[in-house]
C-alpha cells in the first residue's frame, strides 16, 4: 500500500511539476525581496519603508483584480490563462530589473502580481479537474507545499544572492526561470480542455454578465461561510505574524539579522502542514468528505492554542515550538480550504478561488489594523488571535453541520 501511494505521489509530481515549479517561483517572489530592501532603497533613493511597497504592489494587484480576471477562465480556457499568467509574471520581473526609477519598478511589480492573478486560480482549477477525485486533495496539497517551499527559500536565496548579485539580477533570474517553464506547461495543457468545456457549458449564462459571475460566489451560503472562516483564521494568523518579530526581539533580544529565521520557520511549518494534508487527503476528502470540513475546525482550534502561546512563552525554544506548530496548522488549513472551496463550488470555480485569495489578503490587513492598536503588547495580540481563531472554529463547525446532507456518501 505504501509503495502504491508513493507511486501515486511520484506520478502527480511528474505530471504537474512545471505548475508546481510555477507555484514555487510565485512563493519565492513574495519574500525574496525582503533581505534586499536596504540595497533597493539605496539604489532607488527612497526610504526602506517606501521600498517595502514593492511587496505591497505585487500582492494588492492580485487581491483587487484576481476575482475579475478569473471570470475569463471559461471563455479563454486553462492553457491561455495559465501560460499568459506565466508570461506576464516573467515580463513584470524582467521589467523590474531594467529600471532604476522607483515608480516604474512599482508598476513592474504590479505587472508580476497581475501574472499571478491569471496563473494561480486557473492552475488550481485545471489540476483539480485533471485527476481523479481521490487524488485531488494530494495534488492541491503538493501545490501548496511548493508555494510554501518557495516562501521558505525566498528569504535565504535573497540574502545570499545579495552577496554575489544585484537585486535586478535576482528578479531577472526569476523572470527567466518562469519563462523556461512555458514549453512544459504548454505541452501538458491541451488547447481544448474537456473540463473547461464542461464548466463553460454549465455557466454560459453567467459569462454574459461579469457582475453576476462575481456575485454568484456570495449567493452560495456555504461558500459565504467558507470565506468567513478564511477571513477569521487569517486575520488572527497573518495579523499576529506581522508583530511576531517585535515580540521576539523585545523579549529574547534577538538581533535583527536572525529574525529572518522566523520567516524560514513559518515556511517550514506551512510546507510540512501542506504535505501532511497531501498524504492523508484520501482519508479526509474521499472516504469521508465531511471530515475534510471538520479538519478546518481542528486547524482553527490548533491555531487558537498555538498562536497565543507563541506570544506568552518565557523561553525562546518554547516560543519557537509553538510558532512551528502554529504554521503546521496554517499550512494544513490552507490546503483543506482550497479543496473545500472547489468541493463546495457548483460553478465558477476560478472566481470562487480568487475571492478566497482576495479575502485572505484583506484579512491580513484587518488583522494588522486590529493588532496595531497595541503592537508591543503580547497579551493583547494573544487575546485578539484567540478570539478570532475561536470564531473561526465555530464558523467551521457550523458549516460542517450545515453541509452534512451534501457530503453524505
From TrEMBL:
Major facilitator superfamily (MFS) profile domain: residues covered: 15-409
Enumerate the subcellular locations listed in this protein's record, separating them with semicolons. Cell membrane
Which topology term describes how it sits in the membrane?
A: Multi-pass membrane protein
Where does the chain cross the membrane? 12-34, 54-73, 80-96, 102-127, 165-186, 225-246, 258-280, 292-309, 315-333, 353-373, 379-401
Q: Which InterPro entries match?
A: MFS (IPR011701), MFS_dom (IPR020846), MFS_Efflux_Transporters (IPR050189), MFS_trans_sf (IPR036259)
Q: Which UniProt keywords apply?
A: Cell membrane, Membrane, Transmembrane, Transmembrane helix
Q: Quick one: a GO cellular component term? A: plasma membrane
Q: Name one GO molecular function term.
A: transmembrane transporter activity
Pfam families linked to this entry: MFS_1
| Keyword Cell membrane set for record | yes
User: Would the keyword Membrane be found if you checked this record's keyword annotation?
Assistant: yes
* Name of the protein in its database record: Major facilitator superfamily (MFS) profile domain-containing protein
